[in-house]
């Protein structure tokens, strides 16, 4: 079974972000997407800690400790970029001014429910951050995650068993094995990297998978 590595996964998401979009990249793997956005395509990156107009990660040795994203990673600022109070940043998120957000997830349901802040385990540390605001405020929510857990269970499920971040908010799921669109409760296969084919992926995640 073939699979993409994490850099290839991020690059695949970057391919689908259209010209002129205002985009928030979630903490963790989604932040890598910014490194693969084509420079000729005007895409404005937003961070909930109060930055807009971010560029790719800085070269080693050129980091500015006072210019970071929500994950405390150093970033660059493109011409025209700005930083501001995080309350204004959250107002942008809640006001529907973001076209796309890219988030990680523990689980996504076939109806687009998102669970990405807490596994419910007694020793787990909840970390919702701005995810609830992003999931409900962005026009499109893309999830970027490995399709299977370490013990081989699908993260794309019929119903989430973890506490929800948002309800019916996810439109696309980008994984190491395939890209799926979620439409009216159906899982649609957009692209298969695994070589398993539509039915093989359906058997793997134990859900019906339809042609896009």
What's the Cα radius of gyration?
17 Å
Largest sheet: 10 strands, mixed
The N- and C-terminal alpha carbons lie at a distance of 22 Å
Would you identify the CATH architecture?
3-Layer(aba) Sandwich
Q: What is the number of E strands?
A: 13
CATH class, named Alpha Beta
Question: Based on CA inertia axes, which overall geometry fits?
Answer: globular
Spell out the CATH superfamily. Answer: Glutaconate Coenzyme A-transferase
Short summary:
One of its GO terms (molecular function) is CoA-transferase activity. The chain has helices at about 5-15, 85-95, 130-135, 195-205, and strands at about 20-25, 45, 50-55, 75-85, 100-105, 105-110, 115, 140-145, 155, 170-175, 180-185, 185-190, 210. With about 210 residues, the protein is α/β, with parallel strands linked by helices.
Description:
- It contains four helices and 13 strands.
- Helix 4 links the parallel strand 12 and strand 13.
- The chain has helices at residues 6-15, 86-94, 131-137, 197-205, and strands at 22-25, 44-47, 51-54, 77-83, 100-103, 107-109, 114-115, 140-144, 156-157, 170-174, 178-183, 186-192, 209-211.
- The strands form two sheets. It has a ten-stranded mixed β-sheet.
- It is globular, with a radius of gyration of 17 Å.
- 17% of the residues lie in helices and 26% in strands.
- It is of the alpha/beta class.
- The protein has one domain: Glutaconate Coenzyme A-transferase, CATH 3.40.1080.
């Amino acid at each position: 079974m073939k699979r993409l590595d994490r850099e290839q996964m991020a690059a695949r998401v970057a391919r689908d972000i259209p010209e002129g979009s205002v985009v928030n990249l979630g903490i963790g793997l989604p932040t890598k997407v910014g490194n693969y956005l084509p420079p000729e395509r005007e895409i404005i990156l937003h961070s909930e800690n109060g930055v807009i107009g971010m560029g790719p990660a800085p070269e080693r040795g050129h980091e500015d400790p006072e210019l970071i994203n929500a994950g405390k990673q150093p970033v660059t600022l493109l011409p025209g970029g700005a930083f501001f109070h995080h309350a204004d940043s959250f107002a942008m998120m809640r006001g529907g001014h973001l076209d796309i957000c890219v988030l990680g997830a523990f689980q996504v349901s076939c109806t687009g429910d998102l669970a990405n802040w807490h596994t419910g385990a007694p020793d787990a540390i909840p970390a919702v951050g701005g995810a609830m605001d992003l999931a409900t405020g962005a026009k499109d929510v893309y999830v970027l995650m490995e399709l299977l857990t370490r013990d081989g269970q699908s993260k794309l499920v019929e119903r989430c068993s973890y506490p929800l971040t948002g309800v019916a908010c996810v439109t696309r799921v980008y994984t190491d094995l395939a890209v799926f669109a979620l439409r009216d409760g159906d899982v649609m296969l957009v692209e298969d990297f695994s070589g398993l084919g539509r039915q093989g992926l359906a058997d793997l995640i134990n859900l019906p998978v339809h042609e896009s």
